[in-house]
Amino acid sequence: MSTTHSGQVALVTGGAAGIGRTTAVQFAARGIKVVVSDVDAEGGEATAALIRGAGGEACFVRCDVTRESEVAALMAAVLARYGRLDYAFNNAGIEIEQGRLAEGSESEFDAIIGVNVKGVWLCMKHQLPVMLAQGGGAIVNTASVAGLMAAPKMSIYCASKHAVLGLTKSAAIEYAKKKIRINAICPGVIDTDMFRRAHEADPKKGEFAAAMHPLGRIGKAEEVASAVLYLCSDAAAFITGVALPVDGGATA
Ligand SMILES: NC(=O)c1ccc[n+]([C@@H]2O[C@H](COP(=O)([O-])OP(=O)(O)OC[C@H]3O[C@@H](n4cnc5c(N)ncnc54)[C@H](O)[C@@H]3O)[C@@H](O)[C@H]2O)c1
Known about the structure:
The protein is an alpha/beta fold. The chain has helices at residues 18-29, 41-53, 68-82, 106-134, 155-175, 193-199, 203-211, 221-232; strands spanning 9-13, 33-38, 58-62, 87-90, 137-142, 180-187, 243-246.
């Protein structure tokens, strides 16, 4: 983003909670208009209200990123409301712990790949023509450290996040000369509902999660949001096609 943000527009999917909500708030705090999107209308409306309550500009548009018609309608709504799209944070994702590979089900596979891979692909597919028409933009996709290394008992999730990096890097090369930068973030374990849902049943997993990061703790949504805003900013003008770990040193 440039130093003056007046008129700039960001879209955040998975904006009803966690990393998405915090990033939406950080975009808005820099004067950027934000379209918050999610399947969770209550949470998404709450994020938009939070932004407006702090003096920012935001609206909520419900969208299931696994459905092309809904993603197309989301982009139409962005253009109808604000007329442009400068930054897209494709962050909606789900995590299901499915046990060892042979214990996973077809429905789990379809659900995880549907949101995490098809969702990111569909979002970029419908965002890129808008950015091409206006002469540039920046996209950040949410992968994970599970996109960079193994994730035992979460092989489908791991495969989905590796796929996000494949989509990100390929698109980054394809659109580099069109002034559209496309990067991914790879968070370690971050303190959000996703983490709490996965670990509330077993407190030992919380200790393990802290220990896997050399910095000695799990991460905060604010720390991931800062990395997203950096990748969207002019400070990252020569950065495209990267998978940026935000992981307290876990992948080092
Ligand atoms: N929390 C972590 O430890 C962690 C670590 C690495 C990567 N991530 C990734 O970060 C992203 C955000 O996760 P979070 O921790 O904030 O989780 P979260 O569960 O708090 O938020 C995810 C959001 O995505 C939305 N969503 C789910 N399916 C959707 C769909 N089909 N269409 C639109 N929205 C949908 C949910 O309603 C939810 O609001 C995810 O892609 C996740 O895989 C999280």
